[in-house]
Amino acid sequence: MVIGTTFDKPINLSSCINCGQCTIACPTGSLYEKDHLAAVYEALHNSLNHVVIQYSPTISVTLAEEYDLKPGKDVNGMLNAILHKIGFDKVFETAFGVDLAINELAAELLQRVKKGNSLPMLSGDCPAWVKYLEQVNPEMLPMLTTCKSPQQMTGAISKSFYAETRQIDPEKIVMVSVMPCTAKKFEAQREEMIQKGIADVDIVITTRELSR
User: Fold this and answer.
1) Are 54 and 210 in contact (CB under 8 A)?
2) Backbone phi and psi for residue 118, each to the nearest 5 degrees, phi listed first
3) pTM here?
4) 202/199 Cα distance (integer angstroms)
5) 12 falls in which pLDDT band (50, 70, 90)?
6) Which residues contact 56 (CB under 8 A, 6 or more apart)?
7) How far apart are the C-alpha atoms of 202 and 194, rounded to whole Å?
8) Whole-number Å distance between alpha carbons of 2 and 128
9) I want to staple 185 with a disulfide (CB 3.0 to 4.6 A). Which of 1, 74, 191, 204 is the partner?
10) String of b and e for 59-77 (b: at least 16 CB within 10 Å)?
11) How far apart are CA 15 and CA 6, in angstroms?
């Protein structure tokens, strides 16, 4: 028995959509998410950096279960305090990015309805779903929204509006993202998410990595 990709193609040329489910389904347990904690430590220990972190609203529930916290516990309050103590200069919740994304999606949908083209409009929040369309159903790409995901919007606004209002050089800002899905690691590295050499999100870690 050989464990490998479909037709033995390199993983970037296989049917892989970076969903991360292989880490659960692998029969040998040899697949696991790439750990990026070392990059987080390095960023935090560099005094020239202004390190900010965003976290998905969903991870607080997972962390509460991980540490056997009682229902009703203010996990977000604890998490914010812990992240500040670890050394992050600013803590954001990606729910803000969700609000931005909803507004942008609504505006784009109205525009498409008026023009009467590229309907229905498909969400682009999930990077695995986007990659699936690119590889399997490229003819449907015109229906895909042009809006970035909440993770990327939060990252982009931290390097623009936040940097401008706080008078911080965007190149000095390191945006760390905590997400429940390994596909977000892939999303942050896409060329489309880098403007003038500055990435919207620099480092993505999973809930498991944060827990460790």
Assistant:
1) no
2) 55, 50
3) 0.88
4) 6
5) low
6) 94, 151, 178, 179, 180
7) 10
8) 25
9) 204
10) bbebbbeeeeeeeeeebbe
11) 7
